[in-house]
Amino acid sequence: MEYNGKTSPVLERYRVPNIANAMILSTFFEKFIPWLVAVPLAVFAYMHPFLISETRVGDFVNSSLTVSALLMGFLATSKSILISYRGSRIFIQLKHTGHIDLMVRYIMCAIFASLFWLLVGFAMYFDRTRLILSAWCFFASFSLASFIRVIWLQGKLIKL
């Protein structure tokens, strides 16, 4: 954002050196890590289905539902932590570079992945076909990888 050929006075006051390089939010690996983890695991689960005994399926599904609900709660808290940065020099610099939108997108992606994991977990109470088990593997691994990505970025943001 240029201001008469110079940097905006607001951004000049909140200048953080090399924040874009410090966050490294646009690498290929970081953007696609949930997909790189989830798709192969889902394909593997579809090709080599695993069976859950009828006596243990309730425990398995309950554990799955608990973990996905906990992830959703932690991610909602992470989003509110990001909102609490509003007005800080780091937030202004991230907003100027467009990285804040990417971080919000990552958080929302992780929340929705956890929600779908929860829904597929409910579906497992009624049906345990290869497709449902494969979808469960996909959303479980996608959700966990997305959660780790958000936590990793929040840690890098706190270090700034």
Helix content: over 70%
The largest sheet has its strands arranged as 1-2
Give the overall shape. Answer: elongated
**In sequence order, what are the helices and strands, one letter per element?**
EEHHHHHHH
Enumerate the spans where pLDDT stays under 50 for 5 or more consecutive residues: 1-6
Residue share in β-strands:
under 5%
End-to-end CA span = 22 Å
Count of helical stretches? 7
Average of per-residue pLDDT values: 79
Count the beta strands. 2
Oligomer status: single chain
| Protein structure class | mainly alpha
The value of Rg in angstroms is 20 Å
Please describe the biggest sheet, giving its number of strands, its sense, and whether it closes into a barrel: 2 strands, antiparallel
Walk me through the structure.
The N terminus is likely disordered. Helix content is 78%, strand content 2%. The longest helix is centred in the C-terminal third of the chain and has 30 residues. The two termini are 22 Å apart. α4 packs parallel to α7. It is elongated. A two-stranded antiparallel ribbon has the order 1-2. The chain has a domain of 90 residues. By secondary structure, the protein is an all-alpha fold.
What is this entry, summarized?
The protein has 160 residues and is an all-alpha fold. The chain contains 7 helices and 2 strands, in the order ββααααααα. It has a domain at 71-160.
Which key phrases capture this entry?
78% helix; 2 strands; two-stranded antiparallel ribbon; 2% strand; elongated; disordered N terminus; mainly alpha; 160 residues
